[in-house]
Write a structure and sequence with these properties.
The structure is a single chain. By secondary structure, the protein is of the alpha+beta class. It has 24 helices and 16 strands. The strands form three sheets. A six-stranded antiparallel sheet has the order 6-13-10-8-7-15, with no helix packed on it. Strands 2-1-3-5-4 form a five-stranded mixed sheet. Helix 3 packs across helix 4, helix 8 runs antiparallel to helix 9 and helix 10 packs antiparallel against helix 16. The radius of gyration is 31 Å and the shape is globular.
Length: 776
């Protein structure tokens, strides 16, 4: 008996409360629990700390010591550091708060321009996009700009065509506040020109829309947005005549704003000077050709909106189907058409202006996320009404969603790069491919089923065929109807799960590998008072966020060697990419070293001494072995292999064994382990090529760098044994079943010559045959 009462109480909760609870839960929890990403976020944190220490909070250059930036964003980070201390929480707090304001401003805009359910769906759509989630919880962010644009978008739209038919000056005041915030956070072009010109263009293009009686609407869109009739919008007058006529209430401020925005843009376009801050674009224009191609922003938007990427495209195109100009008897809600046109123009001009900023500055994020989120919310709100089935549109959206999910699976680094304006090397320790494919499939299925079958499930599709007579087909039809009834809600639930998983699981896991916080925390844990710590090829900006000990700069490899020779216990923070050359140099110089922290994929903490209870975490120990001093002649590594071989490449590298499966089922991965004995110093720069030659072309290719880029042949030393592991995909569609012969060799890449087989079996092409396997 308590369940119905509980449901009734939940239904009475205002939608804005749900939107606020969602925004707070997404943006604030564990905000300071993961480290600054190096170097992108750490540089900003260091700059914000210097601003906080200075006398001028709104001078991001700190008297010329840093590059110029818009005055608001890092000033908010500096204010947080002043209030809460130099920590991740302090630096990020006001960015997260700006993100909360952006979500609530989108809700406010949607509730006023459309209706409250659309406002809630829009808030959820904004908060479930990866681009927004990452910007809400990091310093590499335009969160203040998004908050200002959401306020400006909603305020201008509500003032231009109010739901009650009477303009409120409070809406215009909110729009002006949003314009000021956006201009201070992202420059005048994105902050002022974009929202005002978008509104002006919507009024101009939609000038013939008639604000009529909602009862005349016969396409089911009547409830989706208030009609907007009233003193300012007589039913027999067009929008153009009623809202743009000189002397009408509200015309003057709209006209002044439009003229100001246009004049601002025209005045600023001619004032660019390379290397000098521009208030128009909110950055320092760079000299030379653009650094990003046209597709860079498309990829950012496509990946940054997942799983709504395809839905956003159709949602933004919605007004084009309503404004087709035909003479049919179908009547739709004029105010809904105006709102959707406004959102389309805002999103389109936002892309154009962001592309322009990208060309001028060399970097820019897509700024019009609030408009896209509102378009998605309006689309979902209408789809939930199920006024008509749309199976073709649903199928296209589902296909587009799966295409983006597949691309994420193949290139997961794009998930972390959408807000960084640069590629990051995705750590292999963080796996998201299967999760993204699963989320993409469920969201795609929900959208397709909801658009194709929801109207039938709710009994609103008069043209629906009768239920099939066959029992199996009848059960399938009923199951699809149930899926259609709840598919859209399921898609929203998938997006919510992915957003929270991204915020609370994926980002902290990535931060472990993209921040040197874990390594410095280990230093604080293991070091004794006075133990020095150095850094080699690590910028070290902001290192005192994690340790009060100053890092000694070690500019050269020789300096690292002399530092680790110290009789005292010392530590060195190094990039993991430098481990192989350091390992070779330290071994040749007989300088012992240990890795005391290898939890990060990018940074390692070395020491010349192990403390009590510590173990060496050197990742090379697993796959690189050399006989210890005093070992008996002929000592062998602690590995075993199934296929013994003896073949020598270039008189320096002896292949002594291999492991690979005898049978593989498609689709699957072929694992291959190769075991080498280094007889002499090998030539540098060689990759390992692997060929799986089967019954038909094309062959499977497993070329790769030794030890997954971690230990190139340049650093192999005589006497060492090397174990190399690689995996090769065997796709179902392009891999014929049959017997495959496995070959391997060494190759420098490109048109370079393979390393010669100087001893042992050779197929005549400087390849060694390892054996055969069955692919089924």
């Amino acid at each position: 008996a308590s369940d119905p009462r509980m449901l009734d109480r939940l239904k009475r909760v205002p939608p804005w409360v749900w939107a606020l609870a969602f925004a707070l839960a997404l943006c604030l929890p564990r905000l300071g629990s993961f480290g600054f990403w190096d170097p992108s976020e750490l540089r900003l944190a260091e700059q914000a700390r210097e601003i906080a220490r200075s006398a001028h909070l709104f001078d991001p250059t700190v008297a010329g010591h840093f590059p110029a930036r818009p005055p608001l964003d890092l000033s908010l980070a500096a204010l947080g550091i002043r209030l809460f201390g130099a920590s991740e929480w302090g630096a990020r707090f006001f960015f997260a708060l700006s993100a909360v304001i952006a979500v609530m401003a989108v809700y406010w805009a949607g509730a006023g321009l459309l209706r409250r359910r659309a406002g809630l769906l829009s808030a959820l759509a904004l908060g479930t996009t990866p681009l927004f989630v990452l910007e809400a919880r990091q310093l590499t962010s335009d969160a203040p700009l998004l908050a200002g644009l959401a306020l400006a978008l909603g305020g201008l739209g509500r003032f231009a065509w109010p739901a009650e038919g009477r303009r409120r000056w409070l809406d215009l005041g909110a729009a002006l506040v949003g314009l000021v915030i956006a201009a201070l956070a992202g420059g005048a072009l994105s902050g002022i020109v974009l929202p005002v010109v978008s509104m002006g263009a919507a009024l101009l293009i939609g000038g013939r829309l008639v604000a009529g009686d909602p009862s005349a609407v016969n396409d089911g869109t009547g409830p989706l947005a208030a009609a907007g009739t009233g003193p300012d919008f007589p039913a027999d007058m067009t929008l153009a005549a009623s809202s743009l006529r000189p002397g009408r209430r509200g015309f003057a401020p709209l006209l002044v704003l439009l003229l100001f925005a246009v004049g601002l843009g025209l005045a600023g376009f001619g004032g660019f000077v390379a290397g000098k801050y521009s208030w128009l674009v909110g950055g320092v224009p760079h000299a030379g050709a653009p650094t990003h191609t046209f597709e860079a922003l498309i990829r950012e938007v496509g990946f940054g909106l997942f799983p709504w990427s395809a839905v956003a495209f159709f949602a933004l195109a919605r007004p084009l189907t309503r404004l087709d100009g035909d003479n049919s008897d179908v009547r739709t809600n004029a105010r809904l058409m105006f709102v959707e046109l406004y959102l389309l123009l805002f999103a389109g001009l936002g892309y154009a202006f962001s592309s322009y900023r990208d060309i001028v500055l060399g970097h820019a994020r897509y700024a019009a996320l609030p408009a896209v989120a509102l378009a998605i919310g309006a689309f979902l709100d209408e789809a939930l009404e199920a006024t008509r089935p749309e199976p073709v549109a649903g199928l296209l959206m589902a296909t587009g969603t799966m295409v983006v999910a597949r691309d994420f699976y193949l290139a997961p680094e794009d998930l972390a790069s959408v807000h960084l304006l640069d590629k990051v090397r995705w750590p292999s320790q963080v796996s998201v491919g299967e999760l993204v494919l699963g989320i993409g499939f469920l969201a795609a299925l929900g959208v397709y089923a909801g658009l194709a079958a929801r109207s039938r499930a709710l009994g609103r599709d008069a043209a629906a065929p009768a239920m099939p007579a066959a029992p199996v087909r009848r059960r399938a039809a009923r199951g699809f109807a149930v899926l259609g009834r709840y598919g859209l809600q399921g898609a929203v639930a998938c997006a919510l799960f992915f957003a929270f998983h991204l915020a609370q699981v994926i980002v902290p896991a990535l931060s472990k590998h993209l921040s040197f916080k874990p390594a410095l925390e280990s230093y604080t844990k293991f070091a004794r008072p006075g133990d020095p710590i150095g850094r080699y090829h690590v910028e070290g900006h902001g290192s005192t966020f994690y340790s009060q000990q100053a890092l000694i700069d070690l500019p050269t490899q020789d300096r690292v060697l002399s530092f680790l020779r110290d009789s005292r216990r010392v530590f060195a923070l190094v990039a993991s990419s430098d481990l192989a050359p350091l390992d070779a140099a330290l071994k040749q110089a007989n300088v012992p070293y240990h890795v005391v922290d290898a939890s990060s994929a990018r940074f390692l903490l070395l020491s010349n001494q192990l403390g009590p209870g510590q173990r060496d975490q050197n990742p090379l120990l697993k796959n690189v072995w050399a006989p210890p001093p005093g070992a008996a002649a002929g000592a062998r590594p602690p590995w075993t292999w199934r296929v013994p071989i003896s073949a020598t490449f270039g008189d320096s590298i002896e292949l002594i064994g291999a492991d690979f499966p005898q049978t593989v089922h498609r689709p699957g991965k072929i694992g291959l382990d190769l075991y080498f004995h280094v007889k002499a110093k090998p030539p540098a720069g060689f990759k390992i090529f692997v060929h799986y030659d089967g019954p038909a072309a094309p062959r499977l290719i497993g070329d790769h760098d030794p030890l997954d880029h971690a230990f190139g042949t340049a650093y192999w030393l005589p006497g060492e044994y090397i174990r190399d592991h690689s995996e090769t995909d065997a796709p179902l569609m392009t891999t014929p079943a049959g017997t495959y012969v496995v070959y391997m060799g060494f190759w420098p890449g490109g048109e370079g010559r393979r390393l010669k087989v100087t001893a042992g079996p050779n197929d005549g092409e400087d390849r060694v045959k390892l054996g055969s396997m069955e692919i089924k």
